[in-house]
Amino acid sequence: MTHTTALFEPFGLGPLALPNRLVMAPLTRNRAAADGTPTPLMAAYYAQRATAGLIIAEASTPNATGQTYPNITAIHAPGHVAGWRRVTDAVRAAGGGPMFLQLQHGGRVGHPATSGLTPVAPSPVPLPETIFTPEGHRRAVVPREMTLDDIRATVADFAAAARNAIEAGFDGVEVHAANGHLLHQFLAGNTNLRTDDYGGSVAGRIRFAVEVVEAVAAGIGAGRVGVRVSPGNTVNGIAETDTDVLHPALVEALAGRGLAYLHLAYADPDVPLFRRIRADWPGTLVANPVLPEISTEAVLQGSARLLAAGADLIALGRPFLANPDLVARLRLGAPLNPVRDRYLMYVGGAAGYTDYPALDEAGAQPSRSSMRAWDGARVV
């Protein structure tokens, strides 16, 4: 069996039986109601993509202060639970496999024009760029530095959000410690200027993330908890100066806790840090490949390289966005739908969301080059 064909083999994620190793990565799509409640359109969107081995549903805020942009999802009120229950029910009715929900607090990535609240962060360091709000792009505000009481309350909010997710029908949650949001802001030296136990040294900067994971695991069971990290990622103004020390320390602190998985964003098997994280992480590693383009060949080859380097599951974002039947297309070596106008990703409505055609609708056939990639993509 080649590493490419292994993509379509079942995988046991703890007690969960995944029908294949393809994971739909969390994708913020801004289709929720203004209060963060998932909509019926979202249920249709996720049900279309039910053939993924595992769906990690889009980032949802554990409290109102954590809201990043307009119309993102939340999981801190009964209405949110009911809305997400409609989504999980729709996916299961479509024959889907397990679903996790990503929990994300935006920290300084937020604005009073969106949430009605001043954003909070480890330190009063503003986002160095404008941020989209219901009133258009606005200059970022200086966030309020979190007190120790704020930290304790936010940790408790993550745990409560995880319990809400299980009530909503999810099999588990993913704690988002990546992409410049609150947990990543605590990790990075340019956004965490604290001199107390939550700042300064690497041990101090990883403390908040570890406490969040501990609380979530205590609330729903460690085997239901995944964690996403993105070492060295500079999105949202993050600048890590000690990536090769910081992230191994975080991995070491989380290893041995019986977590469901570690999700490594923008994974490159040629980077030494990837190999170190794989060696240090004792459980399931989900890897999100860096793709030069959204094509069948690129996805198959990028996935095969990561599997050969020790990844267990492959998380894909935009390929799933544009291809509701991505698993079938990759299995057949069929061409992929291109991602349409990027602005359609976030503007709301069905366009660029639920209107991407499946193979039988598009009348697409496997291309010869795709079939060559399928037949020959063996990575050693």
Assign the CATH class: Alpha Beta
Uncertain ranges: 366-380
Classify the beta-strand content into a percent band: 15-25%
How far is it from the N-terminal to the C-terminal residue, by CA?
12 Å
Strands ordered across the widest β-sheet: 3-4-6-11-12-13-14-15
The CATH homology group name: Aldolase class I
**Whole-number count of domains:** 1
Assign an overall shape.
Answer: globular
Q: Output the number of helix runs.
A: 14
Order of helices and strands: EEEHEEHEHEEEEHEHHHEHEHEHEHHHH
Protein name: Alkene reductase
Domain NADH:flavin oxidoreductase/NADH oxidase N-terminal: 7-336
Pfam family, one: Oxidored_FMN
Organism: Streptomyces glaucus
Question: How does this model look, in words?
Answer:
- This is Alkene reductase.
- Pfam families: Oxidored_FMN.
- The protein has 380 residues and is α/β, with parallel strands linked by helices.
- It has one domain: Aldolase class I (TIM Barrel, Alpha-Beta Barrel).
- The protein is built from 14 helices and 15 strands.
- The strands form four sheets. It has an eight-stranded parallel beta barrel. A two-stranded antiparallel sheet has the order 1-2.
- It starts with 10 loop residues before the first strand and ends with a helix.
